[in-house]
C-alpha cells in the first residue's frame, strides 16, 4: 500500500519532514503530575477520533511526503481497542520502515505478544521511579507492579532494545537516578532521561524543577563513567552515551537546557486529526475535516505541503533564550495544547 517519498519537503529553516507522531487517544489511565494531573478534562468525543482507516490513509500520505518513521502515542495508546490491527495496517505501507510505540506499560502483560506479532518495531516505556510511594505520588495510581510486569512481558515477547523514559523532577524523583540506572543495566534496558518540560498548561512547571542533563550526567559519572555522547542521527531527540564498561547505554532528551529545534523533523497528529508542527503549539490544522469532506490525496498533500513550507517553530530555542535573559521566561505566556491531547 502507498508509496515511498516522492517529494522532499523542507520548512523555513530547511528542516525536512521525517517523523510522524500519532496520538491514537487522548485518554490515559494515569494522572502524571508533570503531564495531566486533573481527573476532569475536555475529552475528545468518540465520533471525532480518527478511525484506523483514516490514520492509515493519512500515514501513507505522510510517507509520500518523506516520513519514514511513525510513533504511536497518546494519552495512553494501549487504551485504544485493537491497536495491533492499526499496527498491521501501518506495516503494509511501502516506505514506512519503523512503527514505534510509547506506553506506560500498564497493559503490556496482555498486549506485548499481539503487538509484536502485528509488527511493532520498537517500544519506549515511561517509568519514572521504582519506588511504590513515589510512583503513586507521580502518577496518582498504584500500578507500579503491573507496569514492571508489563516491561518484562515486553522483554519476553522479544522487544529489543526496550527504551525506558524517565522524566526527572527535582525533589520528586531525582534520588531515583542511580537506582533506575542500576535497574536498566541489570535488565539490559536503555534508559532515557527526559528533562522536565513546560508542556501544556496543567502541570506546575517551574525552571527550578528541572534537573538538567549536565547534572544527571555528573551524578551518573560518579558511579558509572561513560564515553562521549552523540546523536545517532542529527534529528534524534536523544543524545546517547555508552557506559565505559560497555554494559549498556543511557540517553538524554535535554529539550530545555540543550534544545534541538534546529534539527526537528517531527510533526504530530492528534487523535481527532489535527496536525501540529511543534510540541508547544497552541493550535493545529484540521485534517479530519478534509478527510471527511471527501478531499482526495492530492489536495490533502497540497495542504500539508504548504503548512510545512511555512513552518518556523523554534519554541525550545526561544524558551532557552528567555530563560537566560533578564526578563526571564513565563511558561504561561501562551496557551499550549496539552501533551495528553497532542501526543508525547
Ligand atoms: N501514556 C504514554 C506514556 O506514558 O508513555 C504515552 C504518552 S506520554 C504523554 C509520552 C511521554 O511524554 C512520556 O514518556 C512522558 O514521560 C512524557 N512527558 C509527559 N509530560 C512531560 C513533561 N512535562 N516533561 C517531559 N516529558 C513529559
Notes on the structure:
- With 344 residues, the protein is α/β, with parallel strands linked by helices.
- Strand 1, helix 1 and strand 2 form a beta-alpha-beta unit.
- An 11-stranded mixed sheet has the order 7-8-6-5-4-3-2-1-9-10-11.
- The chain contains 11 helices and 11 strands.
- It has helices spanning 52-64, 83-91, 108-118, 132-139, 144-156, 177-187, 213-221, 287-292, 297-309, 315-323, 339-342; strands at 19-25, 69-74, 98-103, 122-126, 162-168, 190-195, 239-242, 249-253, 266-269, 274-276, 285-286.
- The chain is globular and about 60 Å long.
- The structure holds S-adenosylmethionine (SAM).
Give the overall pLDDT as a whole number. Answer: 96
Strand content: 15-25%
Strand order of the largest sheet: 7-8-6-5-4-3-2-1-9-10-11
Question: Which structural class best describes the helix and strand composition?
Answer: alpha/beta
Task: Enumerate the distinct ligands.
Answer: S-adenosylmethionine
Major beta-sheet overview: 11 strands, mixed
Total number of strands? 11
Given the structure, what is the number of helices? 11
Please provide the ordered H/E string of secondary-structure elements.
EHEHEHEHHEHEHEEEEEHHHH
**Which radius of gyration do the C-alpha atoms yield?**
19 Å
How would you sum up the global shape? globular
Helical proportion, percent range: 25-40%
Q: Tell me the distance between the termini.
A: 27 Å
